[in-house]
Amino acid sequence: APKLFVEEDFMALAKAAELVALKASGDIVTFVNNIVINYSNVCVAKCPICAFYRPPKHPEAYTRSPEEVAKATAEAAAKLGVTELHINGGFDPELSVEYFEELFREVKRTAPGVAIKGPTMAEVDYYARLWRMSWREVLERFKAAGLDAISGGGAELFAEDVRRVVSPHKLSGEEWLAVAELAHKMGIPSNATMLYGHVERPEHLIDHIFRVKELQERTGGVLSFIPVKFSPYNTELYTKGIVKAPAPAVYDVKVVAISRLVLLGRTKVAAYWVSTGKRIASLLLKAGANDLVGTMYNEAVLRSAGMPSAATVEELAEIAREAGRRPVLRDTLHRALKWL
After folding, report:
1. I want to staple 171 with a disulfide (CB 3.0 to 4.6 A). Which of 70, 125, 204, 340 is the partner?
2. Going by C-beta distance under 8 Å and a sequence separation of 6 or more, which residues neighbour residue 315?
């Protein structure tokens, strides 16, 4: 399988992947209308791939109050029709479990029709250690307070030799998968991401995709698989000259196509327009992708590394139509809400 990444005929790969996707879900492409809010940019993980974090006490550091998050969510629901809050943050040592419980409850009280897709496996693991709790206890308390699903970040690539470079202070790949499996078995589904275009080799990507496939076979809890293209600007990997530029579009196509060919029809594969740009995302819908993630209003993490930050429902529908697909607005659990 790694040889597929050096396969020159990437169009043949894309065509094969497109056929698998069409057989699985027809010509439908889905996405959610969502708002992205970062509860804090304070993080002690100091990942060399990240341009978003600030250390504790930094003049640009912030932590948002539960009321502030809930108010912004309710406003986005009223004005923009969002049905999902995608909420993440850094590893902030000042935060308590009660902060998150209050945050989730306040969002549910203020914006009752909005699903909460919340902290990643990496955040669950960090806060479990900080609060001296088990993963299960953290997940139980989050779920009881209103958490509906988990976002798939922090997966990066599961291979340890890659993690040592890109996220040395985060949980291991095995731990990420274990938290995900536990969450799924507790009735909390999640996305799974894969960060590419940095220091990886093809075999690292193949290993990662197969591990997600195995997780899905065990639990059925993976809502979608999201390959995320690394945006190097303003990151430590860029300033040190380790990664000089984003991966080319041909690589984007290969990553998505191979993801589809490995995962087959059971798992949605996303064209993550936030990291590739909208034009490439439309191409990826003809290479095996069948989801556009979401409108991502108020995206802060990738914007700090110089990427576009939001799309309207109509803009995403147009990306789908350009690829000859029928756009469908979905909810967090991938149930169809509206044909566009």
Report:
1. 125
2. 278
